[in-house]
Please model this.
Amino acid sequence: GAVVSQHPSRVICKSGTSVKIECRSLDFQATTMFWYRQFPKKSLMLMATSNEGSKATYEQGVEKDKFLINHASLTLSTLTVTSAHPEDSSFYICSARIPGEAGNTIYFGEGSWLTVV
Amino acid sequence: LAKTTQPISMDSYEGQEVNITCSHNNIATNDYITWYQQFPSQGPRFIIQGYKTKVTNEVASLFIPADRKSSTLSLPRVSLSDTAVYYCLVGGISSGSARQLTFGSGTQLTVLP
Model:
């Protein structure tokens, strides 16, 4: 299957600082990538849809100024958590779909654990 | 938006066949049904996808009745390593949005020795 890679897998940052998580499609070009957030023992919640070359589309309740998403190339999307607070600590997962693939299957990255101290 | 309903949890023993059913009464004509497996602290992994009838691959089978209002993931001869959360997703992506691919609660499968 398609490979989507995230980096870093784990990151610890201090309150008030910003942290960037990268999501790469390794063997295909992804015009669209998706960012999810997951709390322990809970399901995934869609945060935003990242479109190459245009602004991201955020889900209701997600602060776009806090969770900055950039999709500068067909293989890279980044999520920057700005002015991080302990409540931002969570598991962040990106995904991408292969354009034109039947069923529009989305493939997920390994996830990134963010801990804000 | 096709909401999905799955059992919260299931237990099984090694070597048994496990069937997890997902209800999706509001499935649309163009929607596909996709199942994912998720281990703790990992992203979901694609297992199988189908549109109608039966689909089989090297790890699972997917049974979809004619009305497509439900689907059943079948895992043959499970092992301890199949302990994970299984999600059923229904929908597709239109206009670049994953809004239709909303995760339900998933099913925690625990395989016992």
